[in-house]
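Tutorial, part two.
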Amino acid sequence: MLSTTLLRLATASLLAAASAAVSARLPGEVYAALDRAKLPPEAVVVVVQEAGSTRNRLAWRETAAVNPASLTKLLTTYAALELLGPAWSWNTPVWLHGTVNEGVLEGNLVIKGSGDPKLVPERLWLLMRRVQQLGVREIHGDIVLDRSAFSVPEQNPAEFDGEPLRPYNVRADALLLGYRSVLIAFTPDAARGLALVSVDPPLAGVSADASVPLSAGACNDWRGELKADFSDPQRLRLAGSFPAACGEKTWPLAYAEPRRYDERLLLGLWREMGGRITGTVREGAAPATPPSFTSTSPALAEVIREINKYSNNVMAQQLFLTLGLARNGKGTPEAAREVLRRWLAERLGRQGAEGVVIDNGSGLSRETRLSAQQLARLLQSAWGSAVMPELMASLPVSGIDGTLTRSKAPPGRAHLKTGSLRDVAGVAGYVLASSGRRYVVVAIVNHPNANAARPALDALVQWVVQDAGLTAPGAEQQAQRE
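Running the prediction step on this input gives:
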């Protein structure tokens, strides 16, 4: 009996020692990958815990406050699922403000925004189609846009990183139409020796070259070869050529003149559908009367899939401001931050949430701060939440989809949000190990060379999948036998 007790104590001591040793240093394969990337271990923070447990199986600089980049979207989307519900949707009311007679609206078409992140051209076409179904072919008045639901400070789209034409730099708006972006498509026609060029959606008054010559050679820097000039918002110029080896390609661009985008999009769509208008597109207030009809967004559970799988910044910012509007009555960054701070304190405790800095809800920020331990605790909270299935389904799957399509981590084993800025790289989410255990994994690199850290992050996920160092099966089985 005494020998059995001593054996159990010894086994427990060995397990505790093994666990402590694992927590004290990074796995060798991760060290090696960091070394190849010329990244110091001090640039990394890591937490690995079994899902449903608060015990760290691996912890490295876990309390250090770091910039999580787009991992911030986990906080925003999880909070939204709990506070708004998976079935939440945005309503965009529309008024035919006037009289309709023989196909003519004598008055204004009014659209009021509520922060809908999915007012894409396809839905705008359906909205305009509904206007026509109500008997309107010609508008003797204006299209009036009410964007008063949000109050967001003016910001230069080049301010963050000097890349104003990147769609991730588009800013939030109560009436965000088409992400204020265009998609230029290039379709090779080998018989004619050229690539056809199309721009979607159609913008009134904006033209582009109809084609560019095809070139031989590999498909490398095809965008550079096009020698594009987008400095004139009304003329998209392409002075170069397109490599035939590329096949069909698309180039998403934030429109160079965002203030005029809505006007050009709505007029372009309306005219393409055969509609006529005597006025223009302008801002104004919606009537106090009931709307003629309402355009409803997809459910929140569907919207967050796009936010997390493709790390859509402007959609995340729309959701962030919606939290302020829905829960605090104000569509402002300050109101949204207050909602998230309160919610986070409820999930982590007031002390547990100390040090968290929330900026805009998307992670496109130099100011956001939290620790790996705080993010791991948030993921543990989500694991036990009623909205866990919706949150987990919104995350990219390793080697399968979203921002993890090209991941070298074991395919299908990890549901992980990715984060990436010029000096940040990270992953956070859930990993299914070979043993059948599921782990919460958080790993973030803050360093000027952070973009070289992806192999190290993949190595960590692989290590977790293999349960390497996370358990001591032999000792555990021996203890059970005794």
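The chain has 13 helices and 22 strands. In part three we will examine how such features are distributed along the chain.
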